[in-house]
Amino acid sequence: MTKSMKILRPAIMCFLVMTIVCGVIYTAAVTGIAQLIFPGQANGSIITVTLKDGTQKDYGSALIAQEFTSAEYMIGRPMGTTNLSPVSEEQKALVDERTDWLHTLDPDNTADIPMVLVTASGSGVDPNITPDAAEYQVARLARERGVSGDDVRAIISKYTTDRFLGIFGEPAVNVLKVNLALDGLL
């Protein structure tokens, strides 16, 4: 065996052992534990609905936003991320564009638009909005759906989560779940 092979052999063996331990065994163990303890979350928190004909349909993840643009649906945060400064002209133009769109969608609503409806989240796929952003949309949803505002608020309340352990984070309304409930699917 040559001198260079003697030097390379331990490095190659270490690489192979670490690949098997970290890339195969560890990954399989973590995946297996996640599937055992948290199967819904490990599989993407998919919202599956049983339809009237008995078939099941997947509507998306409760953890990833979907874009809704019709007046009869609750509108979530803008999709896509931005690293623009909050005071930049480009950010102001995006906010103004989204504000104009919301006024076009609901011209009767003269309330202040909650900031969460005109600014993207850090991930760009936040599935939740704040309770005040949901309340901003109640009158439009009730009008478009032909139901009372109290009916819409009851659905929003059902799909609003409180702070984690009562102290961490903020209350959040899951837009997809509210829209599926408004459609009578949840």
UniProtKB/TrEMBL annotation:
Pfam families: KdpC (PF02669). Part of the high-affinity ATP-driven potassium transport (or Kdp) system, which catalyzes the hydrolysis of ATP coupled with the electrogenic transport of potassium into the cytoplasm. This subunit acts as a catalytic chaperone that increases the ATP-binding affinity of the ATP-hydrolyzing subunit KdpB by the formation of a transient KdpB/KdpC/ATP ternary complex. It is a single-pass membrane protein. It comes from the Bacteria. PANTHER family: POTASSIUM-TRANSPORTING ATPASE C CHAIN, POTASSIUM-TRANSPORTING ATPASE KDPC SUBUNIT. The keyword Glycoprotein does not apply. The gene is kdpC. The system is composed of three essential subunits: KdpA, KdpB and KdpC. It is found in: Cell membrane. One of its GO terms (cellular component) is plasma membrane. This is Potassium-transporting ATPase KdpC subunit. Keywords: ATP-binding, Cell membrane, Ion transport, Membrane, Nucleotide-binding, Potassium, Potassium transport, Transmembrane, Transmembrane helix, Transport. The keyword Kinase does not apply. GO terms for molecular function: ATP binding; P-type potassium transmembrane transporter activity. It comes from Muricomes intestini.
